[in-house]
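Protocol step 4 of 5: obtain the predicted structure for the target chain.
Materials: sequence only (see below). No template structures provided, no constraints applied. The aim of this step is simply to have a reference model before the mutagenesis design in step 5. Sequence pasted as it appears in the construct record:
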Amino acid sequence: MAPGAPALLLLSLLSLPGLPPRATGCPAACRCYSATVECGALQLRLVPPGIPPGTQTLFLQDNSIARLEPGTLAPLASLRRLYLHNNSLRALEPGAFRAQSRLLELALTGNRLRGLRVGAFAGLAQLRVLYLAGNQLVQLLDFTFLHLQRLQELHLQENSIELLEDQALAGLSSLALLDLSRNQLGTISQEALQPLASLQVLRLTENPWRCDCALHWLGTWIKEGGQRLLSSRDKKITCAEPPRLALQSLLEVSGSSLICIPPSVHVEPLEVTANLGEDLRVACQASGYPQPLVTWRKVAQPREGPPQAQAQPEGGVPGPGGPGASDTGSGMLFLTNITLAHAGKYECEASNAGGAARLPFQLLVNLSQQLLLAPAPPRAGGPVSHEPLPEAGGMAFRALGLATQTAIATAIALLALTALLLATMICRRRRRRKKAPGPPGEGALFVNDYSDGPCTFAQLEELRDERGHEMFVIDRSKPLFAEGPAEAAEGAAPGIAQGLPLQPPAAYEIRC
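Step 4 output (structure tokens):
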């Protein structure tokens, strides 16, 4: 090797475009050159800090980023292209890209997005291309892409989209390419595609299309003028249902074969009487083609506010509305802990592309056994009612309205206060009677001298007068001392007689 060759080799390596010198302010382990930052395949969990504010192209693909923290992209107002494909994003917060008003291309392919909130793309006024393929999207709600008025390409293939609401694509007046292939769409409405005034390419293949009257418009539209939007491959819109049309092309099926059977509804029984606190389930069986969507609602009574109890569908296969939507085929009205508010008229409605059918159902609430009515407040000076009141913790009490519960609680409080006042008055009267002076001599001890000799307690006799007062009077017919057993009297009488000190001839009359 000639002298100086190593130096030339080193200079040539440094001049290669694939090995640019590390720019100042570049995030750790990333590569920065010109206005581009490459941070792909670095096992990142968050957008790395320190990205230069003047960055126009940012590569963050093939990492493990699960969330875009609020304000993470705010300093990057100069971004033109952002590549976040093959990460672990599960949701996009509204306003996550609000600072990227100059962004032209956004790649979110291969993440774990299950839904798109309204406002997720707010601020992307200049966006031209949006990649959302290969996610887990199930439905597209109304006005999801409302802020993308200049969007030209929308890639939604390879998701699990079952429902495309009528206004989901509203605002996409500049859209030229829409790819909905390889999803789970069974039908699509004409209203859903109506906002796409600039559409040039439409891909709908590899979906389980249900060829019924609701899809009649699509076949007619393709035959009349929509063919220009479909390539030869995209025209192969194959029917999956009904079985008699399975694997046939929609364009080859005659319009008379695309039929719907209007729904019919059956509820048994049409009227039920339930007790307070019970649970109730009422099935609404619906038939038709396509399978009807069954919903329950409570019919508002005249001169009343909105219904206080709403029916909750339960069980069965989720309807087109996705998880938590009304049941299809066998809608179940499920009411727990029935109260007076649940009583009234309900309506089961089944609808499909062929029409709608409704059937009323009446719910009565039995009050005879469990509900104890609250008594009316007693009039002034009138007798107090002794009817039992519903206990505050009882099921019957909880079933009453707020006004009735308040009235019952007030009545109980008044009864308790009345009882307390009566007890206080009785105690005061008793105290006054004890303190008030009685007749002369009442409660006094009289000591009188009697000439007929002394008396002892053995001669006192307990009596009660007509007012119930106790008193002791002297009975002279009784002996001075109580007689004991005969043997004790014979042996002890002389000693006692000799040792008894005689008192003065005084007698006592005790009255109290």
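Step 4 remarks: The chain has six helices and 27 strands. The helical segments are 5-14, 190-193, 216-224, 395-399, 402-435, 486-499.
Proceed to step 5.
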